[in-house]
Specification:
211 residues; alpha+beta; Jelly Rolls; Arc Repressor Mutant, subunit A; 2 domains; 4-stranded antiparallel sheet; 7 helices; 12 strands; 43% helix; globular
């Protein structure tokens, strides 16, 4: 079926899509305003309020990844919707443009992830969240666990989450003592993703409700 372009109307407060939803369409605002929000660390932040003439949701049609933020109507809205097939059809004449857009989208998603980690107040949870994310997105499954794409440089890892390298080393040592991670041949291995996920939930609840 050929790609389509069609319209959609939203009432004030109506949610168009939520962070994490699958996406295959982008949107152009014909009238009204759309609020873009992102959740991280138990908080919801407004990233932007878009108006007539603005477009959004383009990363989903470029690389097919889930929505990186939520979108809802700040007032009555009319949208022009362009699906992925329609968008891709406009790029067939120049594959280089498609490659550049896909690269830009990937880099922007990586930046969004880093912002999400920086919004987490607790440093332990920030590092554990990063490691879990790296395991899920770039980890290599082996019989001994998941090998994480881990820069074996605590300063480099600290730069990724805005924490001093010595503090990161202290946190990794704690995870080693708890046997949630281990280091083998200068690579970080997570023996059980379920266990470190459970630990992440525990420290998240601990931060939320206190000791």
């Amino acid at each position: 079926m050929a790609g389509q372009e069609f319209e959609k109307a939203l009432k004030p407060g109506e949610v168009l899509f939520r962070q994490g939803d699958p996406g295959k369409e982008m949107f152009l605002i014909r009238s009204g305003k759309i609020k873009i929000t992102r959740s991280a660390g138990g908080q919801e932040k407004t990233l932007a309020v878009l108006k007539e003439g603005d477009f959004f949701g383009e990363m989903a049609v470029i690389d097919g990844s889930p929505r990186s933020a939520s979108a809802s109507a700040a007032e009555e809205v009319k949208l022009l919707i362009i699906d992925r097939e329609a968008f891709k059809s406009h790029l067939k004449s120049n594959p280089m443009i498609e490659y550049v857009l896909e690269t830009m989208a990937r880099r922007l998603r990586d930046t969004n992830k880093m912002v999400e980690f920086l919004m987490i107040r607790d440093e332990l949870r920030r590092v554990v969240s990063l490691l879990v994310n790296m395991a899920n997105e770039r980890g290599a499954q082996t019989p001994d666990g998941i090998i994480v794409d881990f820069p074996y440089d605590y300063n480099a890892l600290g730069d990724m989450v805005g924490i001093d390298g010595s503090k990161v080393e202290e946190i990794v040592k704690k995870l080693l003592e708890l046997k949630l991670v281990r280091i083998s041949d200068r690579k970080l291995v997570i023996p059980s993703l379920a266990n470190i996920d459970e630990y992440l939930r525990f420290i998240t609840l601990k931060e939320k409700f206190g000791n």
